[in-house]
Description:
By secondary structure, chain A is mainly α. Chain A has eight helices and three strands, in the order αβααββααααα.
Amino acid sequence: MKKIIPFVVGTLFIGGAALAAPLELSSGEFGLVYQLLSIAIASMGASFIFFVLGKQNLGIKYQPAMLVSALVVAVACYHYVRIFDSWKEAYVFADGVYKATGIPFNDAYRYADWVLTVPLLLVEAVAVLALASSVASGMIWRLVVAALAMIALGYPGEISSDTGTRLLWGTLSTIPFLYIIYTLFVELGKSLATQPPRVQLLMGNLRLLLFGSWGFYPIAYLLPLIFGSLSSSGIVALQVGYSLADIIAKAGFGTLIYFIALEKTKVDNENKAKVGNLATAGD
Amino acid sequence: MSRVATRQYVVQHQSPIGFLLGALVFLTIAFDYFFGFGGVNLIGLRLVYFVLMSSLVGYVYIVSTQEK
């Protein structure tokens, strides 16, 4: 573990040239990415307002998880604005097609975003259950290291247009992803037995949503290999895949966290009322 | 300040510390928008995010496992 952490942290900060934009895109291809980036901005912005307002309905123990959800979507909203601007600058409409302006399309904001948001999403999932510190502490820190390893190992492949390099780093990045899935389904699963039935149900849905949406990232990562890394279809497929997965993984995930926290608050209040009634009856 | 004292301090001041961390995130975004961090590869931004992420994880860890 002590040898892995410096390597992971080092890889998080390597640089790489932005991929050159394909020379031409059809109107439909440009429009599809344009619309999806707009939808991502709107989803993240709306989720931020919902999470900030919804935080007041929750017990104080569960408010940090909602604060983190709100920050995650706020940061993602800003990054999508930057990616959207870069997309608009990279192409100009001429002779019925969108031609590259020569300004490279820079979606480096995606990886910067994931450095902040991916570990926080995992921590939220554990934090909202308000587990005993002896159970939660090890799990939280192992999930954070695994999340950082997953991002760090994916990045060298992401900035490479070589198929072998992309496949190698993509495969390495899948190892921590599988570890995260194991921790959430097996280790966290054991702690769920003590939770209220509705929380167990919602937590089951949350894990499935996480598995489904995060499982979509490696597929999107591999799409440029199928279509050709610098082809217009490859770039469009990658942007569409990542944007859809981000909307589900951040806005959808945060909404489920809210409903889990709401249920836990309700159960806590009922328990407090029961204790109060018993105390009154005792007097 | 000992570990226990730090923990107690964070738990007792949960709301203001949460607000401060949130404000730091927004300040980082504002700084990046107006001045930029680390050029095309955003290495500076990734570094700042790494620090913010660690602080937020520490905060959530302390606050969400209180009383146990």
